Amino acid sequence: MIASETPVSRLRVEFPEMSAHRTLSGGQRLIAFLLAALLVAGLRLELALTLTLLLALATAVYLVNLGFRLLFLISALRGAPLVAVADEDARSIPDRDLPVYTVLVPAYHEASVIGHTLQALERLDYPRERLDVKLLLEADDQETIAAATAAAARTSLAIEIARVPVGLPRTKPKACNVGLAHAKGSLVTIFDVEDRPEPLQLRRAALAFRRLPPSVACLQAKLSYHNARQNIITRWFTAEYETWFTLLLPALARHGGPVPLGGTSMHIKRDILERVGGWDPYNVTEDADLGVRLQRFRYQVMVLDSTTLEESNSDFVNWVKQRSRWYKGYLQTWLVHMRHPRRLWRELGPRGFLGLSVMIGAVPILQIINPLFWGLTVLWFVDRNPFLQSLLPPAIYFPALLSLVLGNFLALYMGLIAIRVARRPYLLVAALLAPAYWVMMSIAAVRALLQLVIAPSFWEKSVHGLDVHAPVAEGAHATR
């Protein structure tokens, strides 16, 4: 048992401008105030002109987002640039030549699930003497600590339980920093409590790091869901994940953009992770933030051709809470890294700078404004009053129409392509009904914006175990 008093926010000390311990910097507050004042003045003095300019700006953002996604789709159709390691190669490495691998498993109020977690970890094909497994449990979560202690005694794994100090922020990245401080491995990965990693995943990652240039700091394994068929929400969620990990993420890595990591199954070199400050305990999407930070420090992230199966959120309220946290974290990440735009431009280059804004910053922002444009579209066809027409001169109307038609078609088409590549035909109906899923996304995005203002570092925990009885043997796979 590890009782940790280790500082959990090295990033705030070493790179304070990259920490989300404050939502806005002084300069950002000033800019936000000036923009708000300008908006209020414009709406009062020149209502029509101000609304027209806002529509033009939103249309431009939609079009840039559309252009990026079209580029990524074309790139993906040419062949996903995945890091592949054959089964025989992964198994051929002598155990003595494998690096010590630290596996971090953060958990909070997961007493009913933690036993299944350890069953999944036992299936990992990796020498036990070179595994450093750490369960990261909150010090006051006695129920999970007791369940984990009992479950650990029944496994062949040497498991350490680290008690995460009670205090704010109470977040997953804070727990991971405690684990990092006691890590023994040269490679580190994270698995969530509901994860079922492919058994050869650690061996594949270890061999891939040997083969790749030293600049490759992190390998993100693909994620999917074992309970995709449970209901319409899990089918939507699975189709979305297939689009993200099959098409968008590999293309983003190929084009040199910052890669928003997944919160699990990301494999990283420990020395580099420590060099860039570890995880940000104040950012509720510490994974996306770390991906951007690695890029700023001139490291590469690639996608590993190995899949971890997770439990998809099957409950509407639970899904909205989880997605609100993700969108809030995306906004945090974008605001943190945009504190010094010129410096960011130099570090990421124009492609990376735009990639950050489009694939991270614009995602929740567009979901927030989508309902407004859906409403405008309905009004346009139902009642073309002169005022509404005056807001959409041809220079705005036709690009907006292009964005509406092509953007929605592309979103649906990418989902269909992804489920075809993943060979999941049972997701076809869900993919075609995706517009209803987009409404859920907008609800979550509005909620995320409100939380960003009132509780930026509050970690709204997802409930796990809604499909806990699915057999652990229904494992993950490498997708080659």
- CATH fold call: Spore Coat Polysaccharide Biosynthesis Protein SpsA, Chain A
Overall radius of gyration: 23 Å
CATH class: Alpha Beta
What share of residues are in beta strands? 5-15%
Q: How would you sum up this structure, described in words?
A:
The structure is a single chain. The chain has 480 residues and is of the alpha/beta class. It has a single domain, classed as Spore Coat Polysaccharide Biosynthesis Protein SpsA, Chain A (Alpha-Beta Complex). The chain has helices spanning 10-14, 26-45, 47-77, 87-92, 114-122, 142-153, 172-181, 201-211, 232-254, 270-275, 286-296, 316-337, 341-382, 386-391, 394-421, 428-432, 434-454, and strands at 2-3, 101-107, 131-138, 159-164, 187-190, 196-197, 216-225, 266-269, 300-310. A 9-stranded mixed sheet has the order 1-4-3-2-5-8-7-9-6, sandwiched between helices. Helix 5 links the parallel strand 2 and strand 3 (131-138). Helix 2 (26-45) packs across helix 3 (47-77). The two termini are 40 Å apart.
